[in-house]
Design a protein that fits this description.
Distance between the termini: 15 Å
Largest sheet: 6 strands, mixed
Number of strands: 14
Number of helices: 11
Radius of gyration: 25 Å
Strand order of the largest sheet: 6-7-8-3-9-10
Bound molecules: adenosine-5'-diphosphate, magnesium ion
Shape: elongated
Structural class: alpha/beta
Helix content: 25-40%
Length: about 325
């Protein structure tokens, strides 16, 4: 449905979108996840034909967004980060204006306005000025205008930002519902929100795509790692020797404690993390050394999101990274 190839955008000499390539297929809800400044809005503005790219290609339903913008834009409904609402108008007047701009007329326009107002549940405020509406209702009006013209793809840029918790739940439900009839791409900087709504997740950081997978796969493939902590009587050199024979361990950091014990920390990865624990236990036992404590704490998707998005930080001082040995998911 949407094909993005080597998309790059410079603002002056600042690289905001860095060689993005991905394909969006019909019938899914895609979460475009990344911290503030990652390049989400820039990418969405380019996909929807609102902003030019420095280089690269975007194809919507077979139409190049730069060469055939009319045909391409026809397939997309867009709610930008700052929706251009006319505050002095009522939702109904505003939708009529947007519908006409999208080429709808007469009975068809009226029917579609009624349908989208019902879909996003704004009939009760149809005659109120937009300036008098809550942020939640304004966001619904914004979504309603994106739905006019029945586009195949709905793109929503951070639709829940600035809403209160109840409004957030309502908008999330609405997005799920839209996903039954449209392909939806929505952006967020909140991992839990993307996990709750999407079946496909793209993670973007510093303009680069750092992960793209099914939500379930991403969680599974990324959380097969853990932080291992242990305490032993063995001397540091001896610990390194013992653990040298255990598979799946990252760099080992050791610290001698005042009580004569040695505490250690390292990253563990593997299909079965319990197996790593067993291997460590038997390695110490086999060497005749006492293992006083051993704990494994599994990396949460939150940790991984933080690490993935920090990892590509440009020109940052090298920081200690807990999960740096983990294999990154394939980028398609
Ligand atoms: P996101 O939506 O993920 O928060 P944006 O796409 O808005 O990120 O911005 C990506 C980067 O590009 C940010 O560092 C932002 O400051 C910069 N940026 C965005 N718009 C402009 C602009 N018009 N001119 C210069 N820099 C911009
Ligand atoms: Mg943004």
């Amino acid at each position: 449905m949407i094909k993005v190839e080597h998309l790059t955008k410079y603002y002056g000499d600042f690289l905001a979108v860095d060689d993005l390539s991905f394909t969006i297929e019909e019938g899914h809800v895609y979460g475009f996840l990344g911290p503030n400044g990652a390049g989400k809005s820039t990418t969405m503005n380019i996909l929807t034909g609102c902003l030019s790219a420095t280089s690269g290609r975007v194809e919507i339903g077979g139409h190049d967004i730069f060469e055939e913008p009319g045909e391409a834009k026809h397939l997309i409904g867009y709610l930008p980060e700052q929706p251009p609402l006319y505050l002095s108008e009522t939702p109904e007047e505003y939708l009529r204006f947007v519908g006409e701009a999208k080429g709808l007329r007469g009975g068809e326009l009226t029917a579609q306005i009624e349908a989208v107002m019902e879909q996003v549940k704004i009939e009760s405020v149809r005659h109120r000025r937009i300036s008098a509406l809550s942020k939640g209702y304004r966001q619904r009006v914004g979504i309603a205008q994106a739905l006019l013209g029945d586009p195949k793809v709905i793109i929503l840029d951070e639709p829940t930002v600035g809403l209160d918790p109840i409004q957030i739940i309502e908008i999330r439900d609405l997005i799920r519902q839209l996903g039954q009839e449209h392909t939806v791409i929505f952006s967020s900087h909140i991992l839990s929100e993307v996990q709750a709504i999407c079946d496909k997740i793209l993670i973007i950081a510093h303009g680069k795509l750092v992960a793209f997978d099914d939500a379930d796969n991403l969680e599974q493939s990324l959380t097969g790692s853990a932080e291992l902590r242990f305490t032993t009587d063995a001397a540091p050199d001896r610990v390194r020797e013992i653990l040298g024979g255990v598979d799946g361990l990252g760099e080992i950091r050791l610290e001698s404690q005042p009580d004569g014990t040695v505490s250690g920390q390292c990253h563990a990865a593997g299909e079965d993390l319990r197996q790593v624990s067993r291997a460590i236990f038997f390695a110490f036992a086999g060497a005749g050394e006492a293992l006083l404590e051993l704990s494994l704490s599994r990396a949460s998707l939150e940790d991984i999101f933080l690490e993935l998005t920090e990892d590509v930080a440009p020109a940052q001082p090298e920081k200690h990274k807990l999960f740096s040995k983990r294999k990154k998911p394939e980028i398609t």
